Amino acid sequence: MLLLTKEKIDMASLFRYSVHFADSPFWAFAIHDGHQVDPTAEQFILLDETQRLREEDPYTASMVELPVNQLFVATSRFQLDVNRKVEDSVYLRPDQAWGLEVWRDTLPSTILQQLYDEHQKFYQQIDSYIQHTIDKHGFFVAFDVHSYNAQRISEEQPVDKQANPQINLGTHYNNEKWRSVINGFINSVQEQQLLGKAIDIRENVKFKGGYLAQHILQKFRDRGCVLSIEFRKDFMNEWTGLPYQPVILEYKQLLLHTLKDLQKLDIYGV
Q1: Based on the structure, what is the number of domains in the chain?
Q2: Whole-angstrom Cα distance, residue 174 to residue 182?
Q3: What are all long-range contacts of 162-166, with beta carbons under 8 Å and residues at least 24 apart?
Q4: pLDDT tens digits, residue range 95-138?
């Protein structure tokens, strides 16, 4: 399935993302991959790049470079987090940001309002993209890819694998009619291996799906399915940001394989 168009979009001057369109009912989102902070806002941010990188989802965009519609956010979630509702999308309090103080108390109200406006514009675009997909294909399926930390205390902390699955699949907000697609994704993953070992995938253990999934599914209801895929950060050193490229490549192949399996399903009949 060839990409038909490629479009680079800059939302005003503070928020950046790219969209690649394909003739497909599938979407791949990596909305926390971004690390950029606009110079206009950067002067007010207290955190350095290493602190920000730890809570971002680096390398997720490369994992979902799949032959489907793609949307990758380049702006750091510490500037604007579009996976949260608008009033929480700028981390103004430590409890919104893992206990971190993100902004100087001099963040101008004009910048804050501009960020809120760009959040609204972003979702207007998302609505347009999904509606177009429904109009053309009759439905949509979205891979909403993220990652999460499992070594909160230190780099030497053993990973509690019972509490932290390799893949947390957030499905909570989907209409039950899409259960066959959800099961199809899980079955496809369980039939594969990661570095020669079985893969631990579980539903809604750590995360149920963020605001992106909630917004899309509330607006379009039973017209599509959002699979919020959270990879445990086994593919990198979550403290230094060092990537483990063989694992990143295996996750990409994993997603490509599950995509092919889902494309074989009779989704049109769901």
Answers
A1: 1
A2: 9
A3: 163/205, 164/206, 164/232, 165/200, 165/201, 165/202, 165/205, 165/206, 165/232, 166/194, 166/199, 166/200, 166/201, 166/231, 166/232, 166/234
A4: 999 999 999 887 899 999 999 999 999 999 999 999 999 999 99
Question: Do residues 27 and 88 lie in contact, with contact meaning Cβ atoms separated by under 8 Å?
Answer: no
27 sits in which H/E element = strand 26-30
Distance of alpha carbon 238 from alpha carbon 57, whole angstroms: 10
Give me the mean pLDDT over the 217-235 stretch: 97
| Rounded Cα distance, 229 and 208, in Å | 10
Q: Which residue has the tokens 């599950």?
A: 258
Is 195 within 8 Å of 246 (Cβ atoms)?
yes
Q: Which residues contact 133 (CB under 8 A, 6 or more apart)?
A: 25, 27, 69, 139, 140, 224
Q: Is 34 helix (H, G, I), strand (E, B) or coil?
A: coil
Nearest 5°: the CA angle 30, 32, 35 is: 115
Distance of CA 98 to the CA centre of its chain: 18
Residues 6+ apart with CB under 8 A from 233: 147, 148, 149, 150, 151
pLDDT digits (tens, 9 = 90+) for 199-215: 999 999 999 999 999 99
In which domain, by residue range, is 191 found?
3-269
Q: 170 with 228: CB under 8 angstroms?
A: yes
**Percentage of residues of the chain with pLDDT beyond 70:** 94
CATH number of the domain bearing residue 224: 3.40.630.40
Ramachandran angles phi, psi of 163, nearest 5°: -90, -15
3-state secondary structure of 231: strand
Task: Evaluate the CA torsion angle 162, 239, 96, 75 in order and state its sign.
Answer: negative
Report the alpha-carbon distance of residue 50 to residue 236 in Å, rounded.
14
